[in-house]
Amino acid sequence: MSGLVEYVVAPLAALLPILLALGWYLSYVAVRLDRLHTQVEATSAALDAQVVRRAEATVELAYSGDVDPASAALLLDAATHALADQGEWDGHRCLVESELTEVLRVVLPDVDRVGPDLSRRVSPPDARSAPLTGAAERVRLARHFHNEVVERTRSLRGRRVVRALHLAGRTPMPEPIVLDDQWP
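and the corresponding structure tokens:
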């Protein structure tokens, strides 16, 4: 009986803390990965809400009468395309949002002129574009936060242990959202 304890139980007792630590680590990584995927979904939803607010503010500006009719038509066309193209963030949706940004940049330029020292003087937002400026800034921040979370998720999913043990399951790899949001 003494030999059984010596050859079976003693090695198991030494191996048990290692197995427990390994199990804790794998559980920690799986929970962290799940939370990151949840954050990706949340930041994507927040970005969706912000681009809708920006498009709605653009429509309001187009109907306000504060811009000339041709500019209002351009703003309205770009905003309605952006509002109509909702859903997954694919290349087409990013292109539509980038086109809205380009129209905003053309219709409501944010730069007065280039000064003699070649520095750009940014004009202050006026009353007609202040809500739109705020909405556009929130789009930029929401996209930045989303892409940060995507990068952290991709980094964790790139680890060997996550790939080898398929800790991400069948969840698709999140992709960063690349669009032109540099207005104002």
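(Above: one complete record from the training split.) The mean pLDDT is 86.
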